[in-house]
Specification:
This protein has 14 helices and 11 strands. Helix 6 (108-120) packs antiparallel against helix 13. By secondary structure, the chain is an alpha/beta fold. Helix 9 links the parallel strand 7 (193-197) and strand 8. It has 2 domains: 15-36 and 171-275, D-Maltodextrin-Binding Protein, domain 2 (3-Layer(aba) Sandwich); 49-169 and 279-337, 3-Layer(aba) Sandwich (D-Maltodextrin-Binding Protein, domain 2), CATH 3.40.190.10. It is globular, with a radius of gyration of 19 Å. The two termini are 25 Å apart. It has helices at 15-31, 49-54, 57-61, 67-72, 75-80, 108-120, 134-139, 154-158, 201-215, 229-237, 248-257, 288-303, 306-314, 327-337; strands at 82-87, 96-97, 105-106, 123-128, 145-146, 161-176, 193-197, 222-226, 243-247, 264-266, 274-284.
């Protein structure tokens, strides 16, 4: 994360952040699985019963293609008729496989990507890839863009990426059910082993937090960096780590759906979610035709009500207008305006 909270202790929560908490909590109610999960495995699962009830294949078929957007796409995409969109799966409720033992993508990012493809008149191929390989794949020409709950921040922009921002999230602490280690907030993590997924903003968050611990004369954490969310959950379940730092929305969903809600819980801290951020569609900045066209397509979905329906189906926080590289500044101004 580009902007870590300056205070490590329990920080008072603004009404705006409270609105984000309520909205993300509503997400769990919207996305809770109706199917029993496998208690032997911590792999996250997320049922899509509510999303399917409010956003269906028939709804997708009803999205009207805009030929002017098709014509504005890069020539290579017009020729192939497809956009290669990479995503780290599973990471519910953003993306997951349905059923879990299949390779059929589902989730909020998937639904929105398919609507964008329909609006632009091309197929969006949703491709599974480890999170820490996503930006490298786009830079190397193996993919065109990514929708993977990725924060739009200054570091990634400086690395040559632009973000078409489409919702908000923040960071939460996920631990075992019953909170056996008595975690109350970030201070509780000092001197402990904490898991996170490689290449995420949570990894940077923990690294910066360790610097603050050291400056305050407190014992540093051992940061257990793992290749994916399933591995991070397994580390917590096997007591290799006392907690997993992950997106707040994902923490809520995992706690709700894994083992019928009996395996994990989200630490209740008035300061959470930590540092609300913008999530964006990552595209190479130099690929201006694709950045501009995706922005216009998303705005068109907003104008015709499609975006609102998908956002409501999954319970995420909507943006007011489609912007590029708005990042943390927009997130802060947005939540400030919400009373």
């Amino acid at each position: 994360m580009s902007a870590l909270r300056k205070s490590i202790g329990r920080v008072g929560q603004t009404p705006a952040v409270l609105v984000l908490v309520v909205a993300l909590a509503a997400l769990v109610a919207a996305c809770g699985s109706t199917a029993a999960t496998n208690e032997a495995s911590p792999t996250p699962s997320s049922g899509a019963t509510v999303a399917e009830a409010t956003w269906t294949e028939a709804d997708l078929a009803g999205v009207e293609t805009d030929p002017s957007l098709t014509a504005a796409l890069p020539a290579s995409i017009q020729s192939s008729g497809a956009i290669k969109c990479v995503s780290d799966i599973p990471y519910p409720p953003w993306e997951y496989f349905d059923p879990p033992d299949s390779t059929n993508p589902a989730g909020f990012d998937f639904d929105l990507s398919q609507a964008l493809g329909k609006k632009m008149g091309v197929t969006v191929k949703f491709i599974d890839m480890p999170f820490d390989s996503i930006l490298l794949a786009i830079k190397g020409g193996k993919a065109d863009m990514s929708m993977s709950a990725m924060y739009d921040n200054e570091e990634r922009q400086k690395a040559g990426f632009s973000f078409v921002d489409y919702t908000f999230d923040g960071t939460g602490i996920l631990t075992l059910k019953g909170n056996p280690h008595g975690i109350t907030g970030l201070d509780s993590l000092e001197g402990q082993t904490v898991a996170c997924e490689s290449g995420t903003t949570q990894q940077a968050f923990l690294t910066n937090l360790n610097k603050q611990f050291a400056a305050a004369g407190k014992p540093k954490m051992q940061i257990l960096v793992l290749p994916g969310q399933p591995e991070a959950l397994l580390a917590v379940k096997s007591n290799r780590a006392i907690a997993d730092l992950t997106d707040y929305s994902t923490a809520l969903d995992v706690a709700k759906t894994t083992g019928n809600g009996n395996v994990f819980e989200v630490v209740e801290d008035p300061a959470a979610p930590y540092d609300p951020q913008m999530d964006g569609i990552a595209i190479l900045t130099k690929n201006t035709a694709l950045v501009d066209t995706v922005q216009k397509a998303l705005q068109a979905l907003m104008d015709d009500g499609t975006y609102g329906r998908i956002i409501a189906a999954w319970g995420f926080v909507p943006v007011e207008s489609v912007q590029v590289n708005a990042g943390p500044a927009y997130a802060a101004s947005h939540v400030t305006k919400v009373e």
